[in-house]
Known about the structure:
The complex is a heterodimer.
Chain A: H1 5-12, H2 17-33, E1 38-40, E2 43-46, H3 51-67, E3 76-79, H4 96-112, H5 122-125, E4 136-137, H6 140-148, H7 159-168, E5 170-172, E6 186-190, H8 203-217, E7 222-225, H9 233-245, E8 252-254, E9 264-267, H10 269-279, E10 287-290, H11 297-307, E11 311-312, E12 316-320, H12 322-330, H13 333-339, E13 343-346, H14 354-358, E14 363-366, H15 369-379, E15 382-385, H16 388-394, E16 396-397
Parallel strand pairs in A: 2-3, 2-4, 6-7, 6-9, 7-8, 10-12, 10-14, 12-13, 14-15
Antiparallel strand pairs in A: 1-5, 11-16
Helix pairs in contact in A: 1-2, 2-7, 3-4, 6-9, 8-9, 8-10, 9-15, 11-13
Chain B: E1 4-6, E2 8-11, E3 15-21, E4 26-27, E5 32-33, E6 38-39, E7 55-58, E8 61-62, H1 67-76, E9 83-86, H2 91-100, E10 104-106, E11 120-124, E12 127-132
Parallel strand pairs in B: 3-7, 4-8, 7-9, 9-10
Antiparallel strand pairs in B: 1-12, 2-10, 3-11, 5-6, 11-12
Helix pairs in contact in B: 1-2
Amino acid sequence: MHLTKYEEESLKGENGPALQMAYRVLLAIGRISGAEKLIPVEWAHVSGVSYLTIGDYGLEFLKRISSSKGAKFRVFTTVNPCGMDTQKWDEMKISADYADNQLKINSYYQKLGVATSFTCVPFQSYKVPRARTHVAWAESSAAIYANSILGLMTNRESAVSALASALTGKTVLCDLHIEENRKPTKIVRVSFERQHSGRRFKGSLDFGILGYFAGAIVPGVIGFSGIRTQPEIEESKALCAAIGTVGSSGMFVINPSGKKKLETIEFTKKEYNETFSELSDSEDGELIVFGCPQMTLEELYELSRSLEYKKLKKKCVVFCSSKVYEIAKAHGYTDTIEGAGAMFVRDACADFTPLLSSLGVDSVVTDSCKGAHYMKRVHNVKVALKDISKIVKENSSP
Amino acid sequence: MRRSITARCIVEGNATGEVLVSSQPIAFLRGVDPERGIVCDPKHELYGVEFRGKILVFPNSVGSSVGAYVIYRLKRNHKSPAAIINQNTDIITASGCAIAGIPLYDAPKASLAELRSGMQVLINSKRSEVLIL
């Protein structure tokens, strides 16, 4: 890979240890991809924020980077959710020790110059650049969304490679940054409605199941056929999140055009049911979890409408970013949802917060396939997967 | 004559040791326990196997982008493999090994089928090959 004089110097450590680390990472990625050069990005989205996932050594690493001379984020940078509500954590059974470490991690990112929101749906809170803009997004669900729905160009960055892009303002010109690599490699054909006697394929749960199935078997760009060309935002979000949970695909194309005959994998009632049973291992859950990925304004609007004049019969936690929360509050959505008995957790991640373990529940009900995958593994709970409207209907009374 | 497999050096470093092969990809976050240095996914073929000091061979990694930090934590906990050989290295493994300083090689154009758990191999940054001892 061709490096400029400045990049060479940085690699040797002449511009400080943070940039040296960053260029080492970019160089390694350059080697695996056989790329020619580095290119500028307009936006980095960094994962690796929850203390639950990066631990003491991750914390120390970020401390060292953030305090090294001249280290700062050189492009607009957003970060993933952290492990707790940053404002109300003390009301939420989060230990002081955990909170202390989490706040330290947050402060290191803030010192480097990060946008205010801790979110896995950064496209909800900040202005999205025009299509074909190069960005470097970790958080697989957001990266897949960026490529497939927003038309941005990004690879599925790792926590560390996105950090390197934030520090340098650059990424490696390879894979999904190159137009010809953005074509489907296999088709997953949804032939579901006919076999379900006309039940429509729709909603976050259906799209999540499809993503979990397709992501596990197609490593490259996925082509989907047999679904609407423009799914609803919550459907796309669920599809992206589930693809990202398994496998390594970074993009999909719905109803692709093109003459090339591609291998086609059928997604029928059988595959749907098998994937569903793999993820859902309970009939019901003691705790309702909404917002994996974090809920968007549109979803909070829908949820508030369905909860109007109702009370929830069990505990319910709703995850969203503080920025989306503020807007939803101004519209009155959060008052309705809280009035029904739900609790908001802002700027945190449903899967990687100690909150769920500390609530002491053995089972969870959610609409999220990504949530089901991780909550089982992280919190050791059983998970019931249900459509969001069904969850509200079964668990609320007037 | 000793056999060798052509490999690319992604992160410099030399290593010699016993091979541990996984035919399945590895999900580092929640698939690997960084404190114990073992695969902790019960469905994985290497479930429970310790890989400290081994030359870990797997096709590529999958799953969460935070996996790179798990590789770093393994190293800091002194539970990391001595080196990693992939079929096709992905961004998670490349970036994790780059910050951890774990020697990393891949072999996109060669078959790794010859490598079996228990074999002794040598890898050296200067030579683009995995030497079977």
